[in-house]
Please model this.
Amino acid sequence: MKRATLKDVAERAGVSKATVSYILNNADKPITEETRMKVKKAMEELQYVPNLGAAALTNKTSKMIGVVIPQTEPGSQLMFQNSFYSEIISAIEYHARKIGYHILVSGTDVDESYMKLVYERNLDGVIAIGVYPDEFFQQFKKIGIPTVLIDSYCKDEHFHNIGIDDELGAYMATKYMLEHHHTKIGFLSGEMKEDGVIKKRHEGYKRALNEYGIPYDKTKVFEVEVDFNCGIEVATKIVKERIDVTGIVTTADVLAIGAIKGFHQAGKSVPKDYSVIGFDDLEISKYITPGLTTIKQDIYGKGKCAVEILEKALNDKKYPKQSVEMQFEIVERESVKNLS
Amino acid sequence: MKRATLKDVAERAGVSKATVSYILNNADKPITEETRMKVKKAMEELQYVPNLGAAALTNKTSKMIGVVIPQTEPGSQLMFQNSFYSEIISAIEYHARKIGYHILVSGTDVDESYMKLVYERNLDGVIAIGVYPDEFFQQFKKIGIPTVLIDSYCKDEHFHNIGIDDELGAYMATKYMLEHHHTKIGFLSGEMKEDGVIKKRHEGYKRALNEYGIPYDKTKVFEVEVDFNCGIEVATKIVKERIDVTGIVTTADVLAIGAIKGFHQAGKSVPKDYSVIGFDDLEISKYITPGLTTIKQDIYGKGKCAVEILEKALNDKKYPKQSVEMQFEIVERESVKNLS
Model:
């Protein structure tokens, strides 16, 4: 079946190509309602679909949003092992689709800038999830493209921000351990980057310890890559080297799930021998055994909110910069034992 | 920073816009090496990036591939709860990017056809994962767009196919249970659709039972939605209604993981009271406790292979239809008990 062109529509409606084009682009031209209806009918009969690539050249809008998530390493695969990213992308895709946008999820090769992608695809806006080097964020500012950052403390006034109070989140997780009478509490986290959420969470961990008069002990802090295997490795190390902890506060459910596995592999049990608390509340975290006690973020809500802000920014160049702090809560399941 | 245009490049190189356009599009025109170099230099200096939307109009190629995955329900979110899809998309994105393509992952709204998406975005090819109504596949054939189907038994000669021997996979899983002296074996599966993988797996389950002289018992077959909760529900039902099984063959790891959780919630233990075998070998399946014994599919390999085939089909209109059967194997972990 041949695809219907704009010319086909014009011929069937008995009008000029320019007229069809004006109607498609909502141009400010005097066109009678009768002509509009004729063109609309012809489009329906021919199953005509405008080419958004062509429309992008006319309207300077591609109806496409770039979504940035971390890669496992430079130039490599997207970090889908952590389902935080697929869950949030699912929400972004759904809400973007509802307002007529598609999303482009793409990594970049080594030595390739994301700016190239923005230009190639004529992206209308960007949603970036996570922490990247400052140069990376600066390119969006240079281009002047509307950008929403999720989970970054880069507070440049060009960017809209969505996040949670990460310091408070880790404070609450640590306090939960303390309230369950743990005093020897480890901190298992991703890399503490400048402007990153992990640094804030680390501060919250320290604040809670401090409140309970427990000295901060660097040997109980484990800064690793955020994946299951690193969780296993740290748990293995804790058992093998008899590191003196009874509970672990983590900054990601994948680390917590890995740690639980590591303890089991080392012949220990959670929560009998060690207590573990997560951060995120991934879908899977309620289906593992023991169910993971964790800080529940509204992952879906973060994605939805990012699309809502971006939509407003796309439609109104003067839309003021937004900084949204989402709610969160502790979900109690079975991975933390009361020591009293 | 203003984006450099084709006109800017032409001016800096001191050539006409047409010349720059010819070079960009590899047009068959007599252009001297010197001119080519001048234009190349101007592009580099201006950080010129061609607009692929514009190129698409000239070359009829968008360098974009559509990737279709199921939605949780018509018009709703993409089915990212099952990380099978994020794992395979990760592989597809990576390999597509390596050959200069981007992927478009989009659901469709109710009453919206995927054909509209193909036209709007001028997609070059499609990779569809899973089983859809025949009309859905037929639209790709009508449009004549190169299409690779993953995990579908729709053998229309228009489509390239990638899959595994699903009948054999479930046969092996069931035989594994039988070899571990289970004789009361349930089958927990997704919906058995025409041309779908589940129907084949159901046949493999029956063949293994038959080989061991065990009559097929419909009351031990549970056909549900493929998600964690359905796994929990079936396990709960088995315990509550004392359905006479000791082992469950499942057609997806998410069902198996849900079933394990359901048994635990009902006060039973895996593998002590019930044995469970999965299908897929998701990343998470080795990190849960007990580790899931499962049929390991090469999910990454399926995605990579789909891109390789599509690339050949895009470059050669006469590329013959491919039908690839991937390898698989049983991974033994801890979720099946030997009853002898």
